[in-house]
Amino acid sequence: xxxxxxxxxxxxxAGFLTRRGVLGLATVRAAHSHGxxxxxxxxxxxxxxxxxxxxxxxxxxxxxxxxxxxxALMEKQKGxxxxxxxxxxxxxxxxxxxxxxxxxxxPSNEWKTVLGFTFMFLGFTGxxxxxxxxxxxxxxxxxxxxxxxxxQLQRMxxxxxxxxEGLSSKWDYDKNEWKK
Amino acid sequence: MSSLLPKxxxxxxxxxxxxFHVVGAFLFSTGSAAxxxxxxxxxRKRAYAEYYKNHDPIADFEALREAGVFxxxxxxxx
Lengths: 180, 78
Prior knowledge:
The complex is a heterodimer. By secondary structure, chain A is mostly helical. Chain A has helices at 4-7, 9-12, 15-19, 68-76, 86-96, 101-104, 110-135, 146-158, and strands spanning 26-30, 37-41, 171-172, 177-178. Chain A is built from eight helices and four strands. Chain A is elongated and about 100 Å long. Chain B is mainly α. Chain B has helices at 13-53, 57-67. The longest helix of chain B has 41 residues, at 13-53. The radius of gyration of chain B is 31 Å and the shape is rod-shaped. In chain B, 0% of the residues are buried. At the A-B interface, loops of A face helix 1 and helix 2 of B.
């Protein structure tokens, strides 16, 4: 794996800052026998390799120490590229880069986890709200009883509320019922 | 060498996008204005005209009076 890959997530948003080496990369290793953890920082005064979605040119090639075959390949690529086979081209790519864009952008199943937890927490919240509604909230105002609401509606019809397009326009005053 | 890809469109990208969106915005805005005018505004104007064509305010007042919603005038029975 491209080791700096995970840690470069916050770096992704500040691509140009990385090139100036402002942000520090830290790896945590246990350094003392009593279990204390000391964060050892990588040297940010030299360029690092990062795979970035929004910028295709990492600062340095991925592989620096090359075997004999790879060194020979690097020499061969200085000539005409038509003489390179497809495997050699892929090998040259893998020397320069860690992941392809396709591998970088590969889909994951994280959305299922996210959705699952979201729904679980919503459900739990619903339980809390229900308990609250039953044990904590006071009684509803008396004006929300069915009897009061019926009297309220009758008074609104008596007053001819919204007679053109609204409530009273739907009421048949001659037959004393809702219009069909 | 694998098969050559067709050369992509390199020029006029902004112009093409602007034309598409300007036309779309114009159509969308005039369309929604027309839809509102003929779906909401005109029927409402007609509804009001119909209501007030044969509207008798005195009879309306008497009906309200009988229903007992006024405080200054009581229904005729009292």
